[in-house]
């Protein structure tokens, strides 16, 4: 495929906020801004809004959506691609867990709190918070394009999946209720029968009371509670030492990899909920997109898939307006941070944290033969400390500011000295008085990708 011309665009809305056709006349945009006929819209430097009345002639534009954990979006019309982006939202599992821990801590401080366990019920259409976050993020990213582009058609590549057939394509109708754990009350009962009461590390048999259920891939890393991701470990082997020395990591590599149902489950949810948010849309299938992508000799990517879904061909003018968007947290609820002490390990002479060289004790009710690593602690190199954030700072990581002292545009990585000193991405620092805020991330980190 020959090199395709790429065009830069500025997006335009009228004085009422109605989207108009994008323009590639960047010199004219500069004059509109300079003469006061238009202004930048909000915090963006890619959208202008006219102050004076203008005509609103628009053309038909199609928005193509390659749905999934990586969300690909592309807008095509009149044999031109006007917009392309790849949006990413990381898993909310860690943040939801942290919020739950902080909430429980606050509850425990209340001495006479009424019990409220029996007066709660889930609403119709309830989803797990992590999936609800993913669905809301996908819908919000799609609707965001409607604010500055006159989109007339929406095409989404989405298909509901049958998770049972992913495991067994020849499953019978009555076998849907007879999974791996059929006949067992708990997951541990199934694992005891499957592994014959044997430890996954040393292969020895132990009583059920001394065996613990261990996730090969941790929940915070995307692991599930499926039996394929679970093994049994004895109290002795299920220790902090084995978590840090790589023994459990090797165990995970040696075991058979489990199927990841999260993507299929999300696609099924999106397929059933899309009609709640959009009155008119068209769906397409993945094999159609793949065939067209191979026909036009395009590489496999979320951006190219969205481009094909939107109706792009090998004669369509591609755009340079390609963005990488990542959702960031708006607020960090943890006000107190703990920095562990560091010691010299007598075995290899390297610096290690106190957690890595701990006693390994996990139960106080009885003494077990834990691997005590405290004996390898030598001199203390760094003292542990607790840091408490007492203020809410205006400038946050990834914000763009102007350093008036050097007249350079810098990217913020953090603040120091109670918010009076700003640290830049280059490693240099500057006083808060000498910076002017140019761009605030505001929960969404957007970067323009120059070369795709």
Your description of this structure?
With 452 residues, the protein is an alpha+beta fold. Helices cover 22% and strands 25% of the residues. The protein contains ten helices and 24 strands. The chain has helices at residues 26-35, 93-108, 129-145, 163-167, 187-195, 240-244, 247-254, 262-273, 286-295, 302-309; strands spanning 6-7, 11-13, 38-40, 47-50, 61-66, 70-77, 80-88, 151-157, 211-215, 230-234, 282-284, 318-319, 322-327, 336-339, 342-345, 351-353, 377-382, 385-388, 400-403, 408-416, 421-424, 429-431, 435-439, 444-448. The strands form seven sheets. It has a seven-stranded mixed β-sheet. Strands 22-21-20-19-23 form a five-stranded antiparallel β-sheet, with no helix packed on it. α9 (286-295) packs across α10. The two termini are 15 Å apart. The model has no long low-confidence stretch (mean pLDDT 86).
